[in-house]
Amino acid sequence: MQFFLNLGPIFRALMRQRFSAILVVVQIAITMAIITNGLAITWERFLHIERHTGIDEHNSFFLTSSGFTQGFNPRATIENDLSLIRATNGVIDAVQTNSFPLSDSGNWYELQTTTDKDAALIPAASYKFDEHGINTFGLTLVAGENFSAQDTLWLDEADSQWPSHVLISQATASALFGEAQWQTAVGKTLFVNQSTPLIIKGIVKRLHAPWVDWPHVEKTIISPARVTHNSARYVIRTQPGRLNDLMQSLSASLAKENTQRVIRKVKSIQQAKDEIYAADIATVSILLVVIVVLAFVTAMGVAGLASFNIDKRRQQIGIRRALGASKGQILQYFMLENALLCAIGAVLGVLLTFMLNIFLVDRYSLTPLPLLYVPIGVLILFFISQLAVIKPAVRAMSVSPAMATRSL
Amino acid sequence: MLTMNNIGKVFTTDVVQTHALRDFSLQVNEGDFLAVTGTSGSGKTTFLNVAGLLETFDSGQYTLDGQDIQGLNDRARSQLRNEKIGFIFQSFNLIPDLNLFDNVDVPLRYRGFNASQRKERIINSLERVGLGKRLKHLPSQLSGGQQQRVAIARALAGSPRFLLADEPTGNLDSDMAKSVMALLQEINQSGTTIIMVTHDKTLAEQAQRQIIVRDGKVCDSTGPITRPESVSATNV
Amino acid sequence: MFKYYVQLALSSIMRSKVHSLLTMLTIALGIGACTITLTLVSSMSANPISHKSEQLFRVQLDNWDPNQAAISPDLPPEFVTWTDANNIVNAKQAKRQSASAITWGMVNPTEQGLTPFLALMRVTSKDFFPMFDVPFIYGAGWDESAEQNNDYVVVLSKETNQRVFNGVNSVGKTLTMLGATFTVVGVLDDWHMSPKFYDMSYGAFSAPEDIYLPLGLKAVFELPHGGITSCWKPIESQRYDAFLHSECINFQLWVELEDGEQKAQFNQYLTNYVTQQKTLGRFPRPLNNRLLDVTQWLEYKQVVKQDIQVMFWLSVMFLLVCLINAASLLSAKLHTKHSEIGLRRALGANFSQIILQYSVEIVFIGLCGGILGVLLAIFGLQGVASLYAGYGQLIELDLTVVTSVIALAVVGTIIAGLIPVYSACRPAPAMQIKQ
């Protein structure tokens, strides 16, 4: 009750310095709009970046071997390279592949469960690697089984032939056979290019497409093919902690092993990820800095107004103390005054938050703000401004009651 | 010299209208030393503010040194204030961050004197009040009486025709008050017209002429004031 | 008098150092944030060929699937097929025309005693160089006959010439690449269009190619298809020339047209060309040719990342908060000066003199805040540049941005600061002298 009785005089005192009070209220409101929208964007991006691709991102790297001489033998080179790499101490496994998640290059096909022309087409990114792929990428088989060495087909660059068996990701299975029946996909047939039938040998839990922003990023299909190119890409998974030294030593020993080619683009998956997401990481970092600095600036503004008010009212505070107000009541007065400003600011702030969000959604097709962020924004602002007012309020608390008798 | 005819000044708040001055008429001649007394709320401060062009008035006619004040804009009023009127306040009103020299300098700057003119006037007027050796001191390093002398020096520096003093000794003890009064007498004798507002009757008696303000009117009689104090809004 | 105001301003600032510094810092933070985002926007939305941008046109033809537009709702594809690229370039209906595509191949500079390396290449038409004002240090592009005869000629980038020939004039020298011997005809000077509007398939800020060679050599050497390749119907066979004769798009087609008349003529030619191709069974969709000039093309491609535009708006609001904060701080300071203002008024200062006195102080604070903000932005941009690894080096503070933000800081601070001054001066002077 006391609490509400106090609000009236506080409000009237604030109204006597409308200009300063309005400035702080507007400042709190705009800050809230920025922080709330900024946090929503940051969190959305963060989840996007941290999405798991299904592979062992931390202990893997890749490199490209490009042959350039007339007599270069792609197939023999790949076989030699892979046995050299796999035999190297510290390497868990390695595979030659057309592509991998986060590489940003690859191709996709449209899959169907029938050859019917009108049936729904399911797009899926295509990976081509042999039975070592599961182990190299650290994939989890949730149904069926891995390829055997006999399944693997050596293909010429121009050869568009398909091996008879494929693995698909769980998301592909769900899309083809229904969310509930994805496990039944093993052993069934799917068709690619509306003609070629392929038997599903197994299902991996998760393997993302090479392009992070592709709408169908979870849908992938793996065929046990090794395509002989003059250029071949290897993905190598190392034991934890061995990544950096193996990146160096392996590319050196591969270059020495066969001088009819060059080793290039040696990079860890993590590096590739950082590059792919560079713009998103930049957005997240910049927004976070902006949010922190903004919180700081607004806290300064709130503290500034409070300490200015307190200086102006030193004698008044002294009189209140002389008339029997406890230190706690003085503290409470200024905290309440601040809470009142904050409450008015929050009302305006919620309005501004939605206006800003509507503007951004409308203009830049951002996702609409989840409603949960609004109370979070209010709480953050409330916390910042109450925190900012503590120091000046404590100073007010320590004003001596003797101030009352002192002339100005 | 200074003529007020039926001056009226009304303060309007949400609740009441207060007539701070009504039909206020007064004639001050060159070389006068006039004391204006009255109780709190009688309207004497309003009179001072109107006379000193710090506030406008609502009705009547006010002529200062032959110039009709009615209808002058802020710029002209500021200039008149600057050239013709010197102010002395009860609480001295020195700028605490400026030393004595710079404090006296303030009105001269707005007057547009050049540097050597200003310097000469500042030193002269500070010497006149006996503080010629303390140009670099800050107001806080002086006693109350000395601060009021600086304020008088500042008022004198621009050679005003009028000195308007608002309770010039109100914040001073009696010895200091005496010396400040003596200084004012001396200034008056050298030809400057002085209007002093005070509630102190003994002080008022030292002036050449004395008027009493009551209920916003000039009331020359010194008879007892029987009416209860009226509400004053001048201090809002 | 002005000198007096400057003195007053300086002494007022010096007397409340912390307060003034805080005000400047507040302004600086807002200005810094705005400068950074404005620089990002301006360096990304720059038009690298502004003097010619109304004469260069991207050509788009709609050879796509009759049942589905290349780009929804019904836009034509952004690239053209090998067939159309060659037909239109060879028809020479514009002042200049070029079709180009990214490819790559091994360079084997054994004569120079260097290890082989994989180079990024651009196959293109001879008009490419004059069209885009490509600067040469040595030699020039290839000529008409070299283009017609598919001569083995190359133009090297400055870096490639440095790498292979140590930077000397290599015109006339030979270079082994793609398993054949090529003759160098020209060496480019530094040339990095940003955004790389003529081919943004590897990103709007990707690096230029190392080597340029005639378009026809793509077929001769069966060079790989770099950039973006897209097909709406299966290629008939696995042979290389099946791709060339397919409806697969990969080529960037540009023409230079000097005026509206030429543009109208060229448009008519395109209409005739597509109509004629329709009789051969191609172009099953309705006529949908597009000619976009460079400005329109950049706008269509949304080169400025939406994130950056979002951040720009957020930073404008951030600046607003900072200015409001500065106004609060200035107004708090002025409250302590009410009696000084009243006194100065009593001593003869008029309204405009008071306003002027505080304006000097405020402008000074705003100016310092603005300059400090630009300094903050310089540091901030280095951090931001390292975040945008790909095109960080392209982010540069330009003079227009700097001067306009400093002006903004001053104007913003004046507005923020004069409102409290105005309200401090407004009451009659008498009110403030009484305590």
UniProtKB/TrEMBL annotation, chain A:
Keywords: Cell membrane, Membrane, Transmembrane, Transmembrane helix. This is ABC3 transporter permease C-terminal domain-containing protein. Residues 289-392 form the ABC3 transporter permease C-terminal domain. The chain crosses the membrane at residues 21-43, 286-310, 331-360, 372-390. Pfam families: FtsX. It comes from the Bacteria. One of its GO terms (molecular function) is transmembrane transporter activity. One of its GO terms (cellular component) is plasma membrane. Its main location: membrane. It is a multi-pass membrane protein. The keyword Endoplasmic reticulum does not apply. It comes from Paraglaciecola chathamensis S18K6. It is found in: Cell membrane. Belongs to the ABC-4 integral membrane protein family.
Automatic annotation (TrEMBL), chain B:
One of its GO terms (molecular function) is transmembrane transporter activity. Signal peptide: none annotated. The lineage of its organism: Bacteria, Pseudomonadati, Pseudomonadota, Gammaproteobacteria, Alteromonadales. It comes from Paraglaciecola chathamensis S18K6. Residues 2-233 form the ABC transporter domain. This is ABC transporter related. PANTHER family: ABC TRANSPORTER ATP-BINDING PROTEIN YTRE, IMPORT ATP-BINDING PROTEIN. It holds the Pfam family ABC_tran. One of its GO terms (cellular component) is transmembrane transporter complex. Belongs to the ABC transporter superfamily. Macrolide exporter (TC 3.A.1.122) family. CDD domains: ABC_MJ0796_LolCDE_FtsE. Keywords: ATP-binding, Nucleotide-binding, Transport. SUPFAM superfamilies: P-loop containing nucleoside triphosphate hydrolases.
Automatic annotation (TrEMBL), chain C:
The chain crosses the membrane at residues 21-41, 310-334, 355-381, 401-425. It is found in: Cell membrane. Residues 314-425 form the ABC3 transporter permease C-terminal domain. PROSITE patterns: PROKAR_LIPOPROTEIN. The keyword Metal-binding does not apply. Pfam families: FtsX, MacB_PCD. InterPro entries: ABC3_permease_C (IPR003838), MacB_PCD (IPR025857), Macrolide_Exporter_MacB (IPR050250). It comes from the Bacteria. This is ABC transporter ATP-binding protein. It comes from Paraglaciecola chathamensis S18K6. The lineage of its organism: Bacteria, Pseudomonadati, Pseudomonadota, Gammaproteobacteria, Alteromonadales.
